[in-house]
Specification:
mainly alpha; two-stranded antiparallel sheet; about 280 residues; two-stranded antiparallel ribbon; single chain; about 5% strand
Length: about 280
Amino acid sequence: MSSTTTERNQLEATPSDQLFAWSTRIASGLALLSFLLVLGQVVTHTPLLGQAERAEALLVVATAISTLLTQAKQLPGHKVLLSATIVAVLGGGIHAVGSATSIPFGPFSYAEAIGPIWFGWLAWPMPALWIIVVFNARGVARLGLKPWRKTKTYGFWVIGVATLLAVLFSLALDVFATKVAHYWLWLPTKFAFTWHGMPWTNALGWALGTLLILAFATPFLINKSSRSRRLPPDYHPLIVWVLLLGLFGTGAAMEKLWAAAALSAVTAILSTGFAIRGTRW
């Protein structure tokens, strides 16, 4: 882009546009700062804000807000809010049902470290966590599938790839949540094989939950304006994805859970290669 074009765009920016841009930078900066704090806690085994849960709570909130603000660069604000509400309500509802009935994830119990439990069944971070997972998984899928954007099956491929990414993310997240941060614990089941104590029904639950959520939210996440097609690729979802997987992998490595650390690393590498290849095709 030429300097003349850049200057003209800056002159045309309204005060509300500038406020939005600053808000996005502040939220992203807080998310990065909280990520570094949590990473430091994982490596040093020392709470850096008095209690480990404070930095982790800040990471969840700031990452969710920065994710939604980044979405608002490409979509009208009311669509972002509506889709975020759908994701939070459905995701939170699925986890509340899972906590109460063990369906669809399997039997688990929240630990004190996760913080307040709403209505006795829903841990407060879960709706925000679903926003982080669904929006950023979809963002990475859209980057990788960019060359096929004009095909008739593009939307279904985005949903499918985003669901696969969400399942892989949940496998890395669960090890961090149970073995490192101690947010919840899995209760005994009759399944012969588990993933570090996690029954494989948890992966199925994340897959079904992501599919259900995207089925309802996707219509509000489609921007049909011609301007959206001219926007440069948005790498924010990929950055969030890789950093969080790096955090989970580091936590697993610190606990000498090498299979989980390898899963996080491989998922991050494949996601990065997939996304960059798609944008440069």
